[in-house]
Amino acid sequence: MTETSRIASFARFSWGVLAYNLGVILWGAFVRATGSGAGCGSHWPDCNGEILPRAESIETAIELTHRLTSGLALVLVLVQVGWALRLFERGHLARRAAIAGVILMLTEAALGAGIVLLEYVADDASAGRAAWMALHLVNTFLLVAALALTAWWADAERASRALDAGGGVGWYVAIGALALVVTGMAGAVTALGDTLFPSATLAEGLAADASPTAHFLVRLRVIHPIVATGTFLYLVMASALISAARPDARVRRAALALVVSLAVQMGAGLLNLALLAPVWMQLVHLLLADVAWIALVLLGASALGAPRASAVTRAAIA
Ligand code: HEM
């Protein structure tokens, strides 16, 4: 096998690891949405005191499946980092991203274990649980970013370009990433509110949102769509500015993917609200959030690696 084909196999494997992890993340949301987080009692890593229990209830089966599939996710990132360490020299961007992937997978597992051990499960409606869910979402986004970047930078040509954050591009990307993370955190709190305090009708839900006597998780629900709208408008503008600052086909494609996925996500959010957040719609909405996040991460990576507009114009004149 040549060096090029070994790297191509690694890149294919890495995109596969990313796709697999998106599946694990969706299943994790399914655990929350179906109230199955206590399916193994408050035991971790064992399940109800046994390593491999017979699933007595559907909740145990759902929670156990999440543990087994996330265990395999850990094995996959360990294989990935071992492979990256052998394939790429010290300092290579793909190697660094793969190392970050393992660290973030371990913190993800620790946050997941914390949910069970702190009993932030089933109908617990504490502020601690809300904060923990928001933190879990931040870690998940960072993990997805590390996995996407490992695959992206496995390409020798992309990794060989020096990163240049100048011309405002670094700021546009960083502010966009922060805004999307905050939107996701607010979404995680909304999702918890919807799971614990479901509304029978949209009118009843909206009335509860505005009621000063409602539970804080219900009153906080309104923040997410407002923050999401601001983030959407900012990222549409930032995508245009980044594309103008770094005229490059890859940057244009990533910017388009970001704007389209965000526009679809805004529609999905409204539908989520109108349908009173059924479980399938929660999963679609979370998947779209991850897709938009990956598009932003790859927009950042391609823009930081692309030549500035002034350099492109000079090259065209010469
Ligand atoms: C930039 C656009 C948006 C992003 C990135 C986003 C992201 C998210 C995320 C990450 C969650 C948590 C999912 C989970 O943990 O299961 C969530 C939940 C939620 N979002 Fe959004 N959202 C966006 C726009 C909107 C809009 C415009 C609305 C409504 C008008 C909305 C309504 C909801 C609702 C009702 C939930 C709770 C139910 C669920 O989990 O799906 N979202 N959002």
Automatic annotation (TrEMBL):
Topology with respect to the bilayer: Multi-pass membrane protein
Top-rank lineage group of the source organism: Bacteria
A single GO BP: heme A biosynthetic process
Pfam families cross-referenced by the UniProt entry: COX15-CtaA (PF02628)
Transmembrane regions: 12-30, 68-85, 97-118, 130-154, 166-192, 222-242, 254-277, 283-304
A single MF term (Gene Ontology): metal ion binding
Pathway: Porphyrin-containing compound metabolism
Main location: membrane
Sorted UniProt keywords: Cell membrane, Disulfide bond, Heme biosynthesis, Iron, Membrane, Metal-binding, Oxidoreductase, Transmembrane, Transmembrane helix
Keyword Oxidoreductase: yes
Entry's localization field: Membrane
Cellular compartments per GO CC: membrane
Family annotation (PANTHER family): HEME A SYNTHASE (PTHR35457:SF1)
Protein's name in the database: Heme A synthase, cytochrome oxidase biogenesis protein Cox15-CtaA
Lineage, top ranks: Bacteria, Pseudomonadati, Myxococcota, Polyangia, Polyangiales
